[in-house]
């Protein structure tokens, strides 16, 4: 007869700790020992030869007991996640809003044709030149942030920002020398272009850090402050628009960098710094797909504009004409993109939720079943997204026409074609997010390069043969190629998703 | 003695504090004529070094299991890595990598329980990774398919392996085996301070060059793994896999070791249970420097004080101590418990703080850390170690030398160290621990009893557990291993 109560480890219903089925008799013996059943206690108090003998006696019934399972996480709300994803585009929405209300923003507005063209070129160049760097920085930084190694996140951001500043400075000097030789732009225009190029480039780098740290509202705060400064300098102080915008951008840059650095420092806390060699070759090799993607993505978005600005310029003084009636409908179409882009984030959350749902209930011997379930998930997600996205875009287009923002057939047509492209762009972004999450960045390169080529080739031919506004068809074709090409890449990988999912976290 | 030793550690010296690290530090510093190379398996690359290495440590290489973008070795020169990546083609993987990987998997799962075949498979992979890329091989579809093939057959049909479990398990394996991509430098002896993964370089060196291989175990690796797994949320099949993998490695390490040193009979019993050969096991108890740890009664405070030196994490049983403190406080409202040690597990520390609040112990518990235990121990009336698992804790030996009576749980070799010169309590039993503490704090002859235990405890420690005895024994073991190797080596 035992002289004392059985220890908790033999009681699966014990409230003392979550119960875990023992792996074997030795496991139970160890648990008995830590519950105070030493060899002597097992002999004297329980009448066994020792702890192991006692464990062997109780193991069979413990082995079939059920475990206390950790509570399942509640399913994420799709609407909340969609809104979270939309916050990503809030700074863009703020700029679009200002443009519609004040007729100017952090960049662009009611300017002379030459000045508008210079700013437009600077803007596009800043996106294209820093896009790849921001992607590569996010890839490396997110890895370290995910490993709670915020000291290295900070180091990584500092390095990529240094590369970014060097590239912005180097290309600016090269542009200045080139312009001095070929006299393409007058000096004030060149200076304006380079000012916007550098200031916006810095803005994308700093906001890239904040996005990576999921501090979306801080990006919006920096942009809002910049916009407030522009308004302040423009109206009460009466400064010229370009000077006001430069002032606003300087303010936004300083704020964004300050916030980004503060966030990084706060997370790195008191972690000691350590030596970490740059390993440039390794970094370039592994980040190359991210660099290519970042550059190509912005080319895909902006190449049609550049083609439109450079078409039919024979009678113009400069080789670039900024065309407001091309830009306005694109800005309006952008609102449609902002409305639907939250789907990318909510779809990523849904993807992980589905994987976590499917993986525990499908056996490893039935890997094909898991892959099929995830392919079906992907397909259904796309099937319901495209019609809904088109519906949203159509409503927006009708509203914009009714409100008089799209007053001419030309602007209506451009907005309509751009809106036809944005759902494909969002689809492409989801595909890219999936491929990046599965650690297959190289699979993104072909679709995005093909998309840029299709966009450029179509836009060039149509803008030269018909008229400049037809460049927007290039955008539509490019986004369709991007969405379908990346979709095919995803579909191919989902056939072996079991394998790719393993690799993504290995 | 001009001997070079590769000391391998896992989650300890010189990056993480604790008993094993103190042991390594003592050994390395007390044998200045031995050249040490340290190979330290650490959880992540962000681990800062927390011990100052003496001049006889020629090199120290940390090997992070996690926290690197890819498993394997990151070389400074990318050209070398790139060549490896280029060499690792599908053909090569199928021809050279897959057979060895399959053999290793069989060994790790126990479907082939030959330690020799497991070791030869590991060696084949180690040699393969000399010129091929580890990450590309282990993350190849071939490796994944082979893993699925073998593991799905291994689990019983009633509890088949799920996709989730397979994914988690293979990710573990890809990280664990990355140790095979690390070159093992030529030395006279490989000395593993743990019987798990840290022993693998010893087996590889033994097979490649016949290097003598010594294992020293403090806590029993597999025993502590059981405890760790019993507290995790990993699914059952994952726990089975992780245990099987480590058990196979430990058995292989025991099989290839020339000697296994142990701290006492309790550890020896478990080592034998896990497959160590009795003839290879030598008992070498830990030792402490008596010139550093000395009684200093003048530092003893007026307030009744209990001191505990332990890292704050589950195996140390701090929650049990806090519950015992609540019971002691009922009889002695002014009792003070000083718990000195790194907060190694934040969640566990939060649990501790919840107990402190639950029992209103704020005025009775003092948290802190110290790197100078010899100065802190004398500032108490007795020492308490509430662990639920231990090897041979240094803190008990230090307390004995400082003339402090000891109350400790009956775990590991604690009973054999204390004998009748301390008071034992049942592990994980706050009432029993409180009973033992009160016996020395508030019993009818508590003061006399404390004085008696303090004096006899110190005498016992001076007789059996000094640092000179312990380092002397290791010096002798190194010499014997080197001599033995020289005699059997074909060159000799």
Describe what you observe in this structure.
The complex is a heterodimer of chains A (506) and B (492). Chain A contains 17 helices and no strands. By secondary structure, chain A is mainly alpha-helical. In chain A, helix 8 runs parallel beside helix 10 and helix 15 runs antiparallel to helix 16. Chain A is elongated, with a radius of gyration of 29 Å. Chain B has 492 residues and is α/β, with parallel strands linked by helices. Helix content of chain B is 48%, strand content 13%. Chain B has 19 helices and 13 strands. A seven-stranded parallel β-sheet of chain B has the order 3-2-1-4-5-6-7. In chain B, strands 10-9-8-11-12-13 form a six-stranded parallel β-sheet, with helices on both faces. At the A-B interface, helix 1, helix 11, helix 12 and helix 17 of A face helix 2, helix 6, helix 7, helix 9 and helix 10 of B.
Summed up:
The complex is a heterodimer of chains A (506) and B (492). By secondary structure, chain A is an all-alpha fold. Chain A has 17 helices and no strands.
Name its key features.
heterodimer, A: 3 domains, 17 helices, elongated, B: 492 residues, alpha/beta, Rossmann fold, 3 domains, 7-stranded parallel beta sheet, 6-stranded parallel beta sheet
Topology:
The complex is a heterodimer of chains A (506) and B (492).
Chain A: H1 25-34, H2 39-44, H3 51-63, H4 78-87, H5 90-102, H6 113-146, H7 150-182, H8 187-212, H9 216-234, H10 241-268, H11 280-310, H12 324-361, H13 367-402, H14 409-437, H15 442-465, H16 471-494, H17 497-504
Helix pairs in contact in A: 1-3, 4-12, 5-9, 5-12, 6-7, 6-8, 6-11, 7-8, 7-10, 8-10, 9-10, 11-15, 11-16, 12-13, 12-14, 13-14, 14-16, 15-16
Chain B: E1 3-10, H1 19-30, E2 34-42, E3 57-64, H2 78-87, H3 90-109, H4 115-131, H5 134-138, H6 141-154, H7 163-176, E4 189-192, H8 200-209, E5 213-216, H9 221-229, H10 236-256, E6 259-262, H11 265-273, E7 281-283, E8 305-309, H12 318-331, E9 336-340, H13 346-358, E10 365-368, H14 373-376, E11 382-385, H15 394-401, E12 406-409, H16 414-418, E13 423-425, H17 430-441, H18 446-464, H19 467-488
Parallel strand pairs in B: 1-2, 1-4, 2-3, 4-5, 5-6, 6-7, 8-9, 8-11, 9-10, 11-12, 12-13
């Amino acid at each position: 007869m035992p002289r004392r109560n059985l220890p908790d480890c033999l009681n699966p219903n014990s409230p003392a700790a979550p119960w875990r089925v023992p792996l074997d008799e030795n496991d139970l013996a160890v648990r008995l020992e830590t519950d105070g059943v030493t060899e002597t206690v097992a002999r004297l108090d329980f009448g066994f030869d020792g702890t192991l003998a006692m464990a062997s006696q109780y193991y069979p019934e413990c082995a079939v007991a059920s475990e206390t399972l950790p509570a399942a996480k509640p399913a994420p709300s799709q609407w909340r996640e969609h809104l979270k994803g939309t916050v990503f585009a809030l700074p863009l929405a703020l700029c679009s809003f200002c443009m519609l209300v004040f007729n100017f923003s952090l960049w662009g507005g009611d300017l002379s044709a030459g000045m508008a063209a210079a700013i437009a070129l600077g803007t596009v160049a800043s996106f294209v030149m820093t896009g790849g760097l921001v992607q590569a920085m996010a890839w490396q930084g997110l890895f370290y942030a995910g490993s709670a190694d915020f000291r290295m996140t900070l180091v990584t951001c500092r390095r990529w920002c240094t590369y970014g500043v060097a590239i912005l400075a180097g290309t600016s000097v090269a542009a200045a020398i080139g312009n001095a030789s070929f006299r393409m732009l007058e000096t004030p225009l060149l200076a304006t272009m380079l000012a916007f190029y550098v200031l916006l480039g810095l803005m994308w780098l700093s906001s890239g850090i904040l996005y990576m740290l999921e501090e979306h509202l801080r990006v919006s705060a920096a942009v809002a402050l910049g916009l407030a400064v522009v308004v302040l300098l423009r109206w009460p102080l009466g400064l010229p628009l370009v000077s006001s915008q430069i002032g606003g951008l300087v303010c936004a840059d300083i704020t964004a960098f300050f916030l980004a650095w503060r966030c990084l420092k706060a997370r790195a806390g008191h972690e000691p710094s350590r030596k970490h060699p740059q390993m440039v070759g390794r970094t370039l090799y592994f980040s190359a797909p991210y660099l290519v993607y970042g550059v190509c993505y912005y080319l895909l978005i902006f190449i049609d504009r550049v083609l439109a600005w450079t078409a039919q310029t024979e009678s113009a003084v400069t080789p670039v004409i900024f065309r407001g009636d091309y830009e306005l409908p694109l800005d309006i179409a952008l609102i449609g993109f902002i409305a639907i882009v939250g789907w990318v984030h909510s779809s990523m959350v849904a993807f992980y939720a589905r994987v976590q749902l499917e993986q525990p209930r499908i056996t490893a011997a039935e890997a094909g079943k898991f892959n099929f379930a995830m392919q079906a998930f992907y397909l259904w997600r796309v099937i319901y997204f495209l019609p809904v996205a088109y519906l949203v875009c159509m409503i927006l287009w009708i509203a914009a026409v009714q409100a008089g923002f799209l007053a001419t057939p030309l602007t209506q047509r451009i907005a309509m074609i751009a809106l036809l492209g944005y759902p494909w762009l969002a689809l492409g972004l989801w595909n890219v997010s999936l491929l990046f999450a599965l650690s297959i960045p190289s699979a993104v390169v072909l679709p995005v390069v093909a998309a840029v080529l299709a966009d450029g080739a179509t836009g060039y031919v149509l803008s030269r043969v018909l008229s400049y506004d037809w460049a927007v068809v290039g955008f539509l074709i490019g986004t369709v190629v991007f969405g379908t090409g990346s979709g095919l890449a995803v579909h191919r990988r989902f056939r072996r998703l079991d394998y790719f999912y393993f690799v993504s976290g290995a | 003695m001009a001997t070079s030793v590769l000391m391998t550690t896992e989650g300890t010296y010189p990056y993480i504090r604790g008993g094993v690290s103190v042991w390594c530090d003592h050994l390395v510093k007390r044998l200045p004529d031995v050249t040490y190379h340290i190979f330290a398996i650490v959880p992540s690359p962000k681990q800062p070094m927390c011990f100052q290495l003496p001049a006889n440590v020629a090199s120290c290489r940390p090997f992070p299991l996690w926290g690197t973008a890819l498993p394997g070795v990151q070389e400074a020169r990318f050209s070398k890595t790139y060549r490896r990546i280029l060499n690792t083609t599908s053909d090569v993987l199928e021809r050279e990598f897959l057979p060895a990987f399959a053999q290793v998997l069989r060994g790790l799962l126990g479907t082939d329980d030959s330690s020799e075949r497991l070791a030869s498979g590991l060696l084949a992979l180690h040699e393969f990774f000399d010129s091929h890329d580890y990450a590309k091989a282990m993350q190849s579809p071939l490796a994944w398919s082979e893993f699925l093939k073998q593991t799905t057959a291994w689990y019983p049909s009633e509890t088949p392996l799920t996709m989730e479990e397979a994914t988690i398990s293979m990710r573990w394996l890809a990280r664990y085996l990355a140790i095979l991509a690390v070159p093992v430098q030529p030395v006279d002896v490989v000395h593993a301070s743990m019987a798990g993964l840290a022993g693998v370089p010893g087996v590889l060196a033994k097979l490649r060059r016949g290097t003598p291989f010594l294992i020293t175990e403090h806590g029993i690796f597999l025993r502590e793994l059981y405890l760790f797994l019993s507290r995790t949320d990993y699914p059952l099949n994952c726990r089975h896999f992780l245990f099987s993998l480590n058990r196979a490695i430990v058995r292989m390490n025991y099989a290839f070791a020339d000697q296994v040193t142990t701290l006492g009979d309790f550890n020896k019993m478990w080592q034998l249970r896990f497959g160590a050969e009795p003839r290879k096991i030598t008992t070498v108890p830990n030792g402490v420097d008596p010139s550093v740890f000395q009684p200093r009664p003048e530092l003893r405070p007026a307030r009744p004080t209990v001191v505990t030196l332990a890292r704050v994490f589950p195996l140390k049983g701090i929650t049990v101590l806090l519950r015992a403190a609540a019971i002691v406080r009922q009889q002695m409202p002014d009792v003070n418990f000083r718990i000195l040690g790194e907060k190694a597990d934040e969640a566990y520390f939060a649990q501790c703080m919840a107990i402190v609040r639950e029992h209103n112990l704020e005025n009775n518990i003092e948290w802190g850390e110290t790197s100078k235990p010899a100065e802190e121990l004398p500032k108490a009336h007795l020492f308490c170690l509430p662990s639920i698992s231990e090897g041979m804790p240094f803190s008990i030996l230090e307390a004995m030398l400082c003339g402090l009576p000891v109350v400790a749980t009956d775990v590991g070799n604690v009973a054999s160290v204390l004998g009748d010169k301390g008071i034992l309590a049942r592990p994980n039993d706050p009432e029993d621990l409180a009973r033992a503490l009160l016996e020395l704090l508030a019993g009818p002859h508590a003061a006399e009893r404390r004085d008696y235990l303090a004096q006899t405890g110190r005498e016992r420690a001076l007789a059996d557990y000094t640092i000179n005895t312990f380092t002397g024994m290791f010096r002798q073991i190194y010499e014997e291993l080197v001599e033995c190797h020289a005699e059997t080596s074909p060159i000799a």
